[in-house]
């Protein structure tokens, strides 16, 4: 079931009405909470079963295991191992077996192992929950809360990765289900829908053509396709996150923000505070710190940064290209940290020109790394790179939607900059100096706000790409 399908929208609307009636007519808080949670669990498993019943079986196994070993407290390590083994078996068996076969010069026939829907995301959620129990940050949750936490359908496919404590704070109380949360939710959902089916899906046409046959295109067009993919994956994934956050908001849940204008970052460290924020936080809290963080000397700190990003790259997919992508980002983080320590940059104020140059360089480096993320093989990635720097002629195709997407991005950045300037005292108090994006949610009880929203929805329908393109992160 795709988020961009009518059946999904109908499902969310039906659940909103059902949960609203439960809140209205069930007076006892504990009963209303329990009924609402179980309604969402049933709906979430229906969502997974719609894709494949076997996916639901794997999800149920991980959920029961996580709940049981979390309840034992001293057995959390066993629960973590089981979650990791489930992820490793379904996602990496073929990759490692094929790699070993090639190493010894043998042929390998891939096994028909299914990749369960959302397994990368709910296993990370399960591991984070168990580590939090082990560290004494939270107490074991009830069976229904754990099952709902791992299966909640708006976030199961591609996140955001909500922290267990934040999620349980909402499952354990009556949630607001009114016109205000519904109004905010559908607007956030609409923003994400626009990013996905108007911008990302149209960019995918250009990107797919060039990456399929790079030698047919001129160097400038290949370079533009690399830039186009940077915007495609941003609009695709941030669009999905908005849709997940919006649909969850309709149902009374607040999911964490996942993107904050990442391409305005001045360096790679800032990039990872703005891009896939919930994964970055997870990797820092549960992997980087577990490896020792910065507590075991300078050299070990740099090594931990690289290892964290390499493993983060491998999490994205069972392919050497993802490992290289993670390695590049890990090395960049280590180099930036070294540069900051040597130059004492944190205490220095940089001018507008220096900030502009660093932003452009960070974006170009990020786009370069995306080549390995997008290419189906290491050889194809090198082909793309060599084609860019060969300066050879070929089919030249300056794709219009790349410039439309860039214009939309610039307009959004301008609005965000104006908003950030108006909130400068608050940002200083939070020790945040960079431009922060936001959702311009309208008051739909006002006539002209309602008109603007419906005009925006009409614009989405008119400009939508109908060729269909799956969510990029749905493959991970």
Quick take:
This protein is mainly alpha-helical and 476 residues long. The protein folds into 2 domains: 6-177, no CATH class; 182-266 and 350-475, no CATH class. The protein has helices spanning 6-25, 29-51, 53-72, 76-103, 119-134, 143-151, 153-156, 164-171, 179-212, 219-250, 268-274, 277-288, 298-316, 320-343, 352-374, 378-390, 400-422, 424-429, 447-463.
Describe this structure in words.
- The structure is a single chain.
- This protein has 2 domains: 6-177, no CATH class; 182-266 and 350-475, no CATH class.
- Helices cover 71% and strands 0% of the residues.
- It contains 19 helices and no strands.
- Helix 9 packs parallel to helix 19 and helix 14 packs antiparallel against helix 15 (352-374).
- The longest helix is centred in the middle third of the chain and has 34 residues, at 179-212.
């Amino acid at each position: 079931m795709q988020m961009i399908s009518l059946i999904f929208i109908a499902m969310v609307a039906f659940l909103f009405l059902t949960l609203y009636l439960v809140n209205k007519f069930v007076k006892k808080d504990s009963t209303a909470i329990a009924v609402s949670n179980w309604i969402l669990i049933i709906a979430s498993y229906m969502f997974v079963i719609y894709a494949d019943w076997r996916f639901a079986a794997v999800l149920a196994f991980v959920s029961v295991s996580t709940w049981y070993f979390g309840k034992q407290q001293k057995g959390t390590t066993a629960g973590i191992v089981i979650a990791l083994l489930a992820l490793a078996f379904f996602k990496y068996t073929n990759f490692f077996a094929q790699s070993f076969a090639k190493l010894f010069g043998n042929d390998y026939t891939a096994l028909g192992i299914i990749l369960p829907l959302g397994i990368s995301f709910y296993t990370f959620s399960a591991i984070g929950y168990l580590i939090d129990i082990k560290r004494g940050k939270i107490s074991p949750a009830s069976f229904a809360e754990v099952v709902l936490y791992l299966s909640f359908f708006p976030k199961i496919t591609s996140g955001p990765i909500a922290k267990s404590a934040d999620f349980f704070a909402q499952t354990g109380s009556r949630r607001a289900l009114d016109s205000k949360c519904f109004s905010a939710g559908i607007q956030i959902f609409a923003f994400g829908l626009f990013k996905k089916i108007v911008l990302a899906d149209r960019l995918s046409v250009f990107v797919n053509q060039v990456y399929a046959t790079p030698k047919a295109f001129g160097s400038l067009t290949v370079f533009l396709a690399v830039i186009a993919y940077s915007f495609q994956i941003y609009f695709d994934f941030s669009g999905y996150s908005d849709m997940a956050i919006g649909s969850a908001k309709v149902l009374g849940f607040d999911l964490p923000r996942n993107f904050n204008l990442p391409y305005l970052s001045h360096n790679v460290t800032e990039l990872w505070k703005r891009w896939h924020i919930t994964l970055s936080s997870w990797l820092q809290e549960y992997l980087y710190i577990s490896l020792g963080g910065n507590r075991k000397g300078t050299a070990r700190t740099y090594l931990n940064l690289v290892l964290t990003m390499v493993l983060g790259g491998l999490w994205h997919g069972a392919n050497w290209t993802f490992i290289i992508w993670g390695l590049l980002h890990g090395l960049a983080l280590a180099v930036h940290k070294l540069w900051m320590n040597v130059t004492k940059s944190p205490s220095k104020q940089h001018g507008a020109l220096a900030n502009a140059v660093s932003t452009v360089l960070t974006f170009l480096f990020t786009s370069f790394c995306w080549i390995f993320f997008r290419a189906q093989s290491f050889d194809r990635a090198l082909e793309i790179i060599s084609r860019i720097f060969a300066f050879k002629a070929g089919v030249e195709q300056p794709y219009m939607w790349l410039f439309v997407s860039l214009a939309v991005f610039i307009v959004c950045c301008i609005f965000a900059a104006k908003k950030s300037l108006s909130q400068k005292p608050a940002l200083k108090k939070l020790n945040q100096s960079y431009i922060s994006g936001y959702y311009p949610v309208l008051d739909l009880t006002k006539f002209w706000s309602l008109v603007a929203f419906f005009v925006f929805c009409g614009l989405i329908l008119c400009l939508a790409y109908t060729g269909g393109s799956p969510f990029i992160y749905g493959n991970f």
